[in-house]
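Re: the pair you flagged

First of the two:
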Amino acid sequence: MSYTEDVAASTEWEAISSATHHDPHSVLGAHAHKDAADRTVTAIRVRRPLASEVAAVFGDGSRLELAHVAHGIWEGQHSGPPLPYRIATRYSDHDETLSGDPYRHGPTLGDLDLHLIAEGRHERLWEALGAHVRTSDGEIGVSFSVWAPNATAVRVVGDHNDWNGEAHAMRSMGVSGVWEIFIPGLPVGTRYKYQIRTRDGAWILKADPMALAAEVPPATASLVATSAHTWSDGAWMTRRAATHAVAQPLSIYEIHVGSWREGLGYREIADPLIQHVTDAGFTHVEFMPLAEHPFGGSWGYQVSGYYAPTSRFGSPDDLRYLIDRLHQAGIGVIMDWVPGHFPKDAFALARFDGQPLYEHPDPRRGEHQDWGTLIFDYGRPEVRGFLVANALYWLKEFHVDGLRVDAVASMLYLDYSREPGEWEPNIHGGRENLEAIRFLQEVNATAYRLHPGILMIAEESTSFPGVTAPTDHAGLGFGFKWNMGWMNDSLQYISRDPMYRGHHEGEMTFSFVYAFGENYLLPISHDEVVHGKGSLLAKMPGDHWHKLANVRAYLAYMWGHPGKKLLFMGQEFGQLAEWSEGRQLDWWLLDQPSHAQLQDFVGVMNHTYRAQAPLWERDNDASSFSRLGAPSWDPTVIAFERRDAHGGRLVVISNFAGVERTGYQLALPREGVWQEVLNTDAADYGGRGSGNLGLVYAKPSDGAAPVATLTLPALSTLWLRHQSDAHVPTVSHG
């Protein structure tokens, strides 16, 4: 049998022709060998079914005509080693076209990349996998790499090949499970997907898990993307790296980009958002998830593209621009991150290569029954590496200052929202998800190691110990934990009629028992103003005036309470309706004086908070806090002292009763003048203007603590700052 006849009969070549071969580069492209005279000869093979003429065109313009051998494969030989070339193809009745040959290029992934991917330790995974504009052997093009270990063949389909991937079959990189190809000449913005052949021979179409950009939903293709943004936030990043967040003021404004103001993209929102946040005095904004997601009604919490900022509001560089501008304005950026689950959409991660891959294969561990979503397989190194690298991606490539990790409790417990018999214990017989715990420890330790000064924040609603303890002390390693207990208890308390609050003091004060067990963040988040819960203002009892007074008193109490702060958008000006992602906030309310006054109050409160170190410098130190109350103990009056590291003292006094307390006796920690730095009942904020004329004086009392006589306005909170050398006005000396 001749060589040609042998080739024609080869099943391997049939697989190459049908683009089902696991290593098409082994046949196609340029291959050097020795002839009978021991001279180097290079064979060039290309796949061009139905072509009438095919030639290899070299850099000097010379041509090597190729002959059809079998199965649409053309071949020619030239003496010497391989040379750069392009392929000229003519089909009957069509002009000749000239294109690069993907199969003449070597792999764009090295052995170290493959090793780190398999180990789950590639800390820049987004630079290895996905689609990247590169130069390979003198040609500019796009490298594609995807992890699909159960696939029997993988193709790249897209705009460049009319969504027919037969000309762009990828090669398997061995036991790593990675598939790779370099396609010359593709422009930025090319739409693409992976066509994956499963073990049972079916072809499925998948978006790139590592895509850096995607089409605007409901379209689902991935996009070839690159960044041209030049960062101008060097001063901010330098300061951040030298900052210990626990000892800094932290007041977060949570925002859903799509419903803050209608029609604003990443670039358009920059100016109004910066102005609003600056006026309101917040230190940070927290964006609800901005990773690509198919269903807007999920608010971003069902992610399909973990490395792709949602294209609903612009390009990835548009988001970089927004973050850059916020940093230049002195505003930090936190992003909601969702490593706990992902949706079942067929185009995305679910059964990515025809088998459970990113999700745990056991449905007892791999599916959230409540949410209809899938759970990551945290014990698989490649999956863990995918998620750890994703956290690092947002921190490095987008300069975000922190990640709020969603639904941590659902990750920690195997029996989360499951009945007996619906979950499998861990190897020790317990309910803890040991693999998820190790993942959280790894992502936190790695993030803090590579990006000092950032914030890793856990939305964790249970009593799991050591959420913010260091990983080398068996903790999870978060910087902060949402205080969900305080949030639920305090909202229940403040929604009660003031007449009955005295019977439920514990709802507001129980948090003092555990306030220093973790580094806490006090949230009034989006979850508290949807699904029939009503807005913060709507939760309050009484008429409109009383509702506003309650909100001011509650927020000032919250800002005085140990722990950092978070407030969802709209609550700063008293949004009346509960939040909906489908419409913008009711900004027209600011035309009403009472709502404008509430927003002014929040701005003053935030700026005062930031100026008063006792309110934030020792948030995690129990010795910086003391309850106050004697001698006039009143269950509707809650008072406590906060102390900074330099002798500064500030007292917070909240009167949650519906009546004013005059002549109220309160023992204060120091005698002398206590300046009123905040009074929520001030007329400027819409209150009655009752108070203490700007200060109170604590007088010594027979060896006991100094006592001050105060006026406590109804539904109010006062902040009093001790003045060690204050001047006390008199009748003769103003």
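Second of the two:
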Amino acid sequence: MTSLSPRLKPWTHRTPWSAWALQIAAALVVGAVVTAIALATQENLADRNIRTGFDFLQNRAGFAIGETLFSYAPADSFGRALLAGLGNTLSVSAWAIVISTGLGLLIGLARLSDNALVRSVSGAYVEVVRNLPLLLQLFVWYALLLHGAPAVATLQEGDVGAFITNRGAALPSLGWEGPLLALAAAWLLVWSRGQTGARRATAWAACALLSAGAAGLAFLRYEAPVVGAFEVQGGLQLSVEFIALVVALSVYTSAYLAEIVRGGLSTVSRGQGEAAQALGLSAPQRLWHVVLPQALRIILPPMTSWHLNTVKNSSLAVAIGYPEVVSVIDTIISQTGQAVEGVVLIILVFLSTSLILSLAMNLYARRNAIWEPAAGPGTSLAPPEFHWPKWRSHLFAEPRQAALTLATAALVGLGVWAAFDWLVLQAVFVGDAADCRRAAGACWPFVQENARFILLGSYPEPEQWRPAAVIVLFAVSLLASLVRRLWSHVVPALWAITLLASPWLMAGGLGLVGVATDKWSGLPVTLLLAGNAVVGAFPLAVLLALARRSRSPVFRWIATGFIEVVRGVPLLGLLFIAAVLFPLLVPAEMTINAFLRVQIALVLFTAAYMAEAVRGGLLSLNKGQAEAGQALGLSRWAALRAVILPQALIASLPSLVSIAISEVKNTTLVLIVGVFDLLQMARLAYVPLEWRPFFVEAYLFVGLVYFTLCFALSRIAATIERAKAGSNASISRHD
């Protein structure tokens, strides 16, 4: 099917002069806005006596950074501090990319396993991890390491080995030269397998020399940690913050990579594996040499996008105090007042990192001919459907299958029993904090005592029926969206009522007591931010998608520039712009409260991603749709409105719902800029001394709320996919 080209010459009654006039007008409007912002910024900086420029990077920093790859001291310059933060960002990102790729590959293979139990467990892992916000997972891992790991005082002084404490991990170190040489030797070994003759012999000789050098350096530079009186000394020291960040990023990203791997492997014909088996290749050889290289054509592009997201998500380290580049720049801004320059540095760092990583992945793809067309159609590698009457053949067909089933069942059983024991058997259901401290299980009185505070926040108590009503409105709209027969009229009306009535209820009016936005908190804030971001971003996304496909270069450049810059910068950077930089960009008399500024940042961020989803829907249409509209005598805009755009939106609807799910999770980031959402209220709930040990219960409660919201939205997306598939099948049968 021929797609609708992005440069398709439109039929139009507009003269070239008017088309150019429209482009010039758009360019003038953009230029006027940029000029107004520049003048307002210059005036605001002058009023605050803030100098512009990057000369401050040469000044003495004066603050310490606890963990760096490069040598740094408080006496060094701000530029050196920035370099240290960048090194930490790259280190965390590299570790997370490597671990998440390996873990995602394993889970993706498990999702395609012939063993139904392994397939179900891996599917549950993906479903749970994907439906929980990354920031929540980061807080959970950080709290578990900080409060669950043993203290240094519990270790025996003088012990030598590897240790994990509430201060971090201490591992034997080999220096950086040995592992680097070992990595080079491993790469040469893999490369030599595809070579012959002198090249192969040379590679093997170099591999032997590198291995010998790595072994020698390991022997000379080996250093084991030793338990001292107050701390573990020597070896490789990793902080709690570093470990929590790497683990959270790896686990979260692996769930998405697993689905990407599963989707890519499922496109490979089953005959490819059968042919390789007939040639005598083992299962690992079939996977590594035959199946996976073909699947990379599908896997690599979305995997690259998620690796870019991992780099951007590393900015969440600021929430737990790890000194990555955003945290360091935030400290620099607070000391120097150079907010404009700081934001520019954040944008430059992440845009350049994204471009370099994208370039590296593209070079790899071109070198290995990954963009070439895949093999022809055939029966995919998708596992057979599981039917319980055939449980024996699916779970115990052969000794290896039976061993895998028993091992998986044992692990799952141990996990379920441990959870049941803590949640139910050892738990306290009635009592107070003192009763909970004496028990070994969950403290449900904490949830009973703080549920109202977590959900409704600091909203005035006499008026808390209003945020409760907002929660009910959103819940009813979500439940109605799951019923397909209500989509035509009831669901749009419910969502319109919900999104219009919720701000009125929260703010007050028409006889209700007014409540300022700084009193808004809890679950209503999460729902309002996510709902308004999706609804507000949708028309902007449609305009951006149409502009990016326009024949007018000015519109195309504006839309492309906006989308690429916004997508290349982490959401936290946009939130910093909204919270810190916005007052400097507008005239002093223009004041917008923090909640609205954060809402605007979320709308712009969501619009950039939605625009690409809508553009994908437009590109999926046959150009005959446009030609049919032309044949019916419709103008360009009439055909776009009545024929092309409705079909494109239907095609992109599942992607749009997925973006909506992401927005629910993205709202957790607003706590970093001082907006108290559901997650922040949960963290405040265990601040009182009596409830401080029960952070697990707090995170479990809010995790259940987020999972319910995201799972409901994912079911809506699945329902839309099924409806689309049924509609396409019906059209095919009619044709």
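The chain has four domains: 22-52, 78-149+238-384, 387-425, 426-734.

-B.
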